[in-house]
Design goal:
2 copies of one chain form a homodimer. With 709 residues, the first copy, chain A, is an all-alpha fold. Chain A is built from 19 helices and no strands. Chain A has one domain.
Chain lengths: 709, 709
């Protein structure tokens, strides 16, 4: 038997290493030249704007936080929840916000340094700085994820093992409270992702339309006052939102797996081992990420003089492959070591999941990269106007749901059948769920690549706004292009793992209901309540998408009107423009846009539970999962393809043609789909599940009293 | 006990009355002045184009028909099907095509007459002619629906009651073969609807974009050579497709209800009565439609001199209300008479269904009429460019799925609970299903209003192309506006009833599986195959939408390129343009576009059945239903709202502004959503179900042999 004490400490060691390296990397970036005063000024303006937005958002989150803690407190008083849930929820939410702030700070301190390096030293050094800063962000996320999950597990394990003699009952309490912890992380992620998404896309749509289409200005032209808001948006949406989202996914996968491990091994000798396993795989992932980061840094430093986009792209892609491969190999030994050779099939189903994630990433690439037919055709159809382009973009986006869905179905069936002989459905799901953990263990590396993009983007904005020679902008544009392929595959991993995690959470909910000794018939041909729950679930993603992209559309309206007014004044020399008004407009829009979804995401599982009973809730979770998965992929790929179709036209030097105007419209339609609504689907799916799990006992009681189910 | 013989003959009497009146109405229209030679010439060109398209489509359908009949023949040989299925399938398909042809013929003979009347006699007389022609179309559909269902029922009843002594077994054969009959109707409808939809929207998008946006020509300008194809599209899509679709829905609802009636009353004294009931309600609907048509004709003839749009709109709306009210009253007595007072609750659940249909219609109106906030906001957002407008349009479209879904959920739960005491779930579904029949029994009237629109549209096209004074076009535009509100509500009825019919069909499939004495567990937390089936089902509507709107986009591309070329030549006086090339382009596109979906719609239920077993198929049906319903409403309303936003801007006299250009782009994006993919969702949902039912025994056998389920 493995040494449990050692395993319990291991994640802390991983977290410590991540943190130390993050500090070193941040210090390395800090030593670089900040650039000219004008660059620093713009970088500061972006920082101040980002901070103002985050502060405002933190206030809204605080209100929700207080209300929810009070509600949870009431549940504690009536015995529906254990009191450690209250601090667990708080740290889940707090850490998420914290890394949002730190990520924003790292990005805004590095952006002008990258611009300066791009001007003075070329692509290699610029990439070096951007990548190092991004790596600091990614490793910090690793620190938080490992520390937070391990901290709560150890605290709760110690606490309940002391107070409850029955180990199974003690662990039941532990996993239940861990769920509350993920609710905190998910809820923060929901706010950061959707709020940031509304902010960034409203600013982007408005700035692009008035600037590029109406006034014929280039991207980030210094005369377009909405540009600063656009660059702030990159930080709050693509950095803050993305990081909170990834943290939530990773932590969510770990804890869903722990819950399933508990269910599958309940009462057995391996119960605690199975719960520790996902944390160890995650630690392995952090180590693998560090390995890949160092390899890339080494390669980049050798290229320094003669770096090209294709070489650097190959490097980041190799980094991703190395990370994944290392995780797979480490998982194999970890599973054998922790659970013993009888449970080898768990490794195989986990491997199937990782392959599925990779496949989904590849499909994403095929549907959104301009080297392949879909994006090429979309950019072709620009010739017959914006409407045909948008229709083609939407068509390809919808088509792109087929292969990922079949992949998820395939891995699901595979995992079930591989674990069939040895145990029940819970074991199969535990295996599938482990694969989500393996996929998400690449997060520190994936986030590095993801955060790298907005830093490069920002540095390009600074180059344009400080009117540097066009070749500097070209260098930063290349820099931006480097991470795209790898980030696209990374996004596929995220989507795939989210689907699997949600599946695991659905099963966790169902098992929790079974723990209550309730017999629930999930047969939708026998019980109309199941059908009603499924129906509600399938519809939810449509509703949430409409709320989010509607908020973006309305805010973009306002940005356009204001930008038009200001640009007119600027062009005629009447004023210098006031970038702050844009930040105010979009901040308010983001704020307003997240309140209704924020309330609904908590209210809906409870209302459905009371009206339709626990069976209806399982159906709700499944319905949301299936339709949300399809919507997420549709929106991500439709938006991504139209974005790249535009870029393709720009690369071909057709920037002032009607085709380009058509492609800008397509890109703008796709933007809120891919960056606001699309990514929030994953969080929606999981929040619905975890809220349902958390309130299961309460809701079942209420429902029973009210309707005598 | 009611007299069964009388009841069995009643639908034939209804069919006869409908046919006689249709002939009278057609003759009345025929007596009107055909208009100037130029009008007749254009009308003929539209007729020739429509016929050419229909002939081409009939050829494709014939190929599919032959292949399917051979496959069915093989199934007959191996005992998986009864031989009368072969002719039943043939008439289902044949009648659908026939009324497509006749509808097209009526429309194209009346359009120039309406133009002439609009020019010489004003709105009232123009409306009179258009309405009379449309009524002939609507009643003809009534004839076919009543005759065809009654004919097959009576023939099969006679045949199997003679050859099989056990009445339950005899009826089982009857309802099984009736399903084959609806497959024919559904399959024809699928071709007519999607093929017509691809045709009409590709022509429309191309003609509009090049004509209106690029060349600044008015709608239907005689210099735009793609205009004839656009007008042909109105006939083949909005007349031919719509009629085949409605026939399919109505007949499908009748037969699904008969199937459920058989299941609910199997072996009881009331078995045959319950199967006859939906046909009697349908006959009542035809009679009620005739009543409403006469009332409207009376009112219109009194208005003749001083007709206004609002008066005429109120009149058609009143007509719809009268029809529905008459059906409800007649249903009450019919249910009492045929099943006795013990089954009164069936009337109540049917009434709930009708109300739900009305509500869905109202919601459609709210989300697409320019008097209400959504469309107003969309037209407002034209100010900030096409992208914001499209994003807002999509957002409202998605939002609009909420209330209809809740309504369907509500009526479903209501019907189950109201029938709970007396019987099982099948009885509840029989009640819900009766409501679909009641809703669809308004079809003869609804089709009258629906067909009336394209006739008015065509007559406007003729007015523009013959360069009549603009006030004539204004008159025909008013004429077009008259039916819109009523048609929107009618569409809601169709969508709502389709969802309910699909639900009934899902249950029919499930019951058929039970008849085979198979125990199927539909618990998606216990059997991953169920989850896989659900997942596949939820994804299908995305896939089909992408195939259909992708086909439209590609064809529109070609139309744009060709129109650009021809208009350039026309404007420079080099040529007179060649409208026929457009008809060829879009006909080919439509042809190609329907082949893949046509094959898939048959292959998918079979493949899923073989791989996942019967449980997976039930899940497939349910998944397709839920996601298809949401998609259908999203697309119909997003498209409708953007269409009306454009019309609102035009009505406000802002036809040459950038806002108008933005709204045209929005309309063009929405077109394939609302008129190609949206309406085909209903047929997709139902075809998946009926094909599954038809192949249930075969597939279960194969699946069992291959995978030992």
């Amino acid at each position: 038997m493995p040494n449990l004490m050692f395993l319990r400490i291991l994640p802390f060691i991983g977290a410590l290493i991540c943190m130390l390296l993050a500090i070193v990397f941040a210090a390395m970036v800090g030593k670089k030249n900040r650039g000219t005063p004008r660059m620093v000024e713009i970088s500061n303006a972006i920082f101040v704007g980002s901070r103002a937005y985050l502060n405002q958002q933190a206030r809204i989150m605080a209100i929700f936080f207080i209300v929810l803690e009070i509600l949870f407190g009431i549940m504690v008083i009536f015995g529906y929840l254990q009191w450690p849930s209250l601090p667990a929820f708080a740290t889940g939410m707090g850490f998420s916000l914290l890394i949002g702030y730190i990520g924003m700070w790292i990005s805004t301190t590095s952006n002008s340094r990258v611009t300066y390096a791009a001007q003075k030293k070329g692509l290699g050094e610029a990439m070096n700085i951007a990548f190092t800063a991004a790596a600091a962000s990614g490793l910090l996320l690793g620190t938080v994820a490992l520390f937070d999950t391990a901290f709560w597990f150890n605290i709760l394990y110690w606490f309940y093992n002391r107070s409850i003699p029955d180990p199974a009952l003690a662990m039941e309490n532990v996993v239940n409270i861990l769920i509350t912890f993920t609710i905190g992380a998910s809820f923060a992620a929901f706010f950061m992702r959707t709020g940031g998404g509304i902010f960034t896309k409203a600013a982007d749509m408005g700035a692009d339309y008035v600037g590029k289409v109406e006034s014929g200005l280039a991207e980030d032209d210094y005369r377009n006052p909405a540009t600063i808001a656009d660059n702030v948006g990159d930080n709050v949406g693509d950095v803050g939102g993305m990081k909170a989202d990834s943290l939530e996914s990773w932590v969510g996968a770990i804890i869903a797996t722990e819950f399933l491990g508990f269910l599958a091994f309940k009462g057995s000798q391996l119960m605690v081992n199975s719960i520790i396993l996902p944390m160890i795989i995650s630690t392995a992932g952090a180590i693998a990420s560090i390995l890949a980061i160092f390899i890339i840094k080494l390669i980049v430093s050798r290229y320094r003089e003669n770096a090209t986009v294709s070489k650097l792209t190959a490097t980041t892609l190799a980094g991703l492959l190395i990370t994944v491969l290392a995780i797979v190999i480490l998982s194999y030994f970890t599973v054998r070591y922790i659970l013993g050779p009888d449970y080898n099939f768990l490794f195989w189903s986990s491997l199937g999941g990782v392959l599925a994630g990779f496949l989904i990433g590849l499909f994403t690439l095929i549907y959104t990269d301009s080297r392949y037919r879909p994006t090429r055709n979309i950019s072709e159809s620009a010739k017959s106007g914006p409407a045909t382009l948008v229709v083609n973009g939407l068509a390809y986006g919808m088509e792109s749901t087929l292969l990922p869905a079949l992949t998820v179905i395939g891995v699901m069936l595979f995992s079930f059948y591989i674990s069939r002989g040895s145990s029940d459905i819970k074991m199969g799901l535990y295996g599938v769920s482990l694969s989500a953990v393996s996929m998400l263990a690449v997060t520190p590396f994936a986030i590095t690549i993801d955060v790298y993009g907005p830093i490069a983007d920002n540095s390009g904005g600074i180059a344009s706004m400080t009117e540097l020679p066009p070749e500097v902008r070209r260098t930063t544009d290349k820099l931006d292009a480097v991470g795209n392929t790898t980030a696209a595959i990374g996004k596929g991993l995220l989507i795939g793992s989210a689907a699997i995690t949600a599946l695991a959470l659905g099963q966790s909910y169902f098992s929790k209901i079974e723990l209550l000794n309730l017999q629930v018939l999930l047969d939708f041909m026998k019980d109309p309540k199941i059908l009603a729950g499924l129906f509600t679930g399938v519809m939810l993603p449509f509703l949430f998408t409409s709320l989010l992209i509607g908020a973006v559309g309305r805010a973009a309206d306002k940005v356009v009107v204001e930008a038009r007014r200001q640009i007119k004044d600027i062009m005629s020399g009447k004023s210098k423009g006031d970038p702050k008004t844009f930040i105010t407009i979009v901040t308010r829009a983001a704020q307003r846009g997240i309140i209704a979804p924020g309330i609904m995401i908590f209210a809906i599982p409870v209302i459905v539970g009371i009206l339709l009973g626990p069976g209806g809730v399982v159906a709700l979770i499944i319905g949301t999962l299936l339709s949300g998965f399809a919507q997420a992929i549709f929106m991500a790929n439709a938006g991504g393809a139209m974005d790249n179709a535009k870029k393709k036209i720009e690369e071909e030097g057709r920037s002032n043609t009607p085709e380009h105007a058509a492609s800008v419209i397509g890109d703008t339609v796709g933007d809120p789909l891919k960056d606001t609504a699309g990514p929030s689907m994953n969080i929606l799916i999981k929040l619905i599940s975890v809220v349902a799990i958390e309130t299961a006992v309460l809701v079942t009681d209420l429902s029973g009293r009210l309707f005598h189910f």
